[in-house]
Amino acid sequence: MTQRRTPHKHTSPAAKRTVxxxxxxxxxxxxxxxxxRPNSSANAxxxxxxxxxxxxxxxxxxxxxxxxxxxxxxxxxxxxxAAAAGxxxxxxxxxxxxxxxxxxxxxxxxxxxxxxxxxxxxxALQLTGSYEFPYGTxxxxxxxxxxxxxxxxxxxxPLVQVGIITLASGEATTVLEAAVGQAEGFEVYDVRxxxxxxxxxxxxxxxxxxxxxxxxxxxxxxxxPTLLDQGDEQWEAPSIAAVGAAAFxxxxxxxxxxxxxxxSLLKRADFGGGQASVLYTSSGRMSTPIYPLADxxxxxxxxxxNNVYHQLTRIKASDxxxxxxxxxxxxxxxxxxxxxxxGFTFSFEGRYNYGDGIANLGTYAPQTAHDPxxxxxxxxxxxxxxxxxxxxxCGNFFMVKSTRAVSGVxxxxxxxxxxxxxxxxxxxxxxxxxxxxxxxxxxxxxxxMTTTAGxxxxxxxxxxxxxxx
Length: 469
What we know:
Distance between the termini: 40 Å
Mean pLDDT: 82
Low-confidence stretches: 1-94
Number of strands: 37
Helix content: under 10%
Radius of gyration: 21 Å
């Protein structure tokens, strides 16, 4: 049974806002923490407290969604690599290489916002929709048809429900009212959707267990869930993606656990009960979450050499073949990796004392289009803000989450704009919900304020945008 939620009807959860960015939920709500990713450089590091997460209010307190894009209350639980059924590796990063060709970018080949001209928003994008959802709603989309969302409830069980937003109307429909394993103490912690299916994770954090489920999606009707994978605390909770007719998830051994020396795996299963298979094996921990596009996913495995190299890799969703690849300089570990009109993008959360033009905190993207695996000698753009969301593309615009607002950059013409924020929005401001290249993008912000007239305003503002015709 599905439940429809009208986008302009607000349901206010009873919750208190925790000021601390490392918020701890009360009662039976899980403890949540920011995720700290060690940096390779001796002088690398972002300012403390500069990377807030997204807060989900509940009747028992708050849950925090970090930039890794899943509720970090699931930290410490993971999937057993051996649990995947069948399949053999179609791609591998475990073959030793004698020589490595990695990206080299001189400083003079890089430009930033300081070299660009700011233009008004109404000269770049048009607002195609503005909708209100319950405060604390979280949204993800990599297509122009729908978006997956977590809708907070007013109860402790379930904490959230899974919804599908129809982008044409802005209406959300609840398609999963509670975790499949709710009776066993599981809650839904992450979700992604394509036009054809839904993939989500459930976790019982008290027992240190989690599961990945997938189900076909026909419009707004969710099919029968299939258990795709499950595991314990020896493996990190995976990032997930839904592309076309398949679900994807990435299994990483816990850095200091018993499985620390195991390979990392990218797995795939068709919606509707398809058998899970391994698409890619990395000899070491992959460094970024899965990044979904309309036809592929991006991962960052390690190259098996004596030195540490991270390789941005675009994998075709239908057959697992490699569509593009780029090796970063030795020991440079990106926080996020993506793909768009000019190829790979990547971001660092700290600074390196080597690397020439790509050594600083922020997000990088080539300025011009090029052939696959041909990144040398290109001009690059550097968005020099602390990365807190993966970037996206909308028409000719490279869309990036700035400190508070979402910004767009026309790399060819060196112009940029900001989508702006509303009064009373949370400190993290507007958030970019889209990945990949689409004709529309989605942003959302949680607003909690009292107007000058004394009216309480507590909601999630969701906006859709499109380039000017």
